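pasting for the record
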Amino acid sequence: MFADFLTRLIQPEPQRLPDPDARIALTALLVRVARADGSYDADEARRIDRVIAGRYGLGPQEATNLRAQAEQLESEAPDTVRFTRAIKDAVPYEAREGVIEALWDVVLADGVRDEEEDALLRLVSNLLGVNDRDSALARQRVEAARS
């Protein structure tokens, strides 16, 4: 279903993605991180829906539909390193920094921060070209919003 999209995304010199394509790629990255621990449940799916609804100004059904498409894209996407690097090359920095904040929101949804999740977020941040300081600030904003 997403073969052409993925082919365009992983080209050596990808073009900037139009907003709808960037949305689905970044949402697929949220899904990938949520699935990373081998447990992807309804609470995580709802958290992703809330994150993307707020980020993109979507209604509940639109958010659910975008997440469903992103789940399919994520299952067809290449390994995390290639997929994340492709997103970096195709999405402006400001959007990538915002997605790190969204990733922290999903990771911290269960109230537990473990070493695996920290390591994955460090890897993804690095691959997206978001420095450690900006990633830490994104995490702190998420933690403050939860308090």
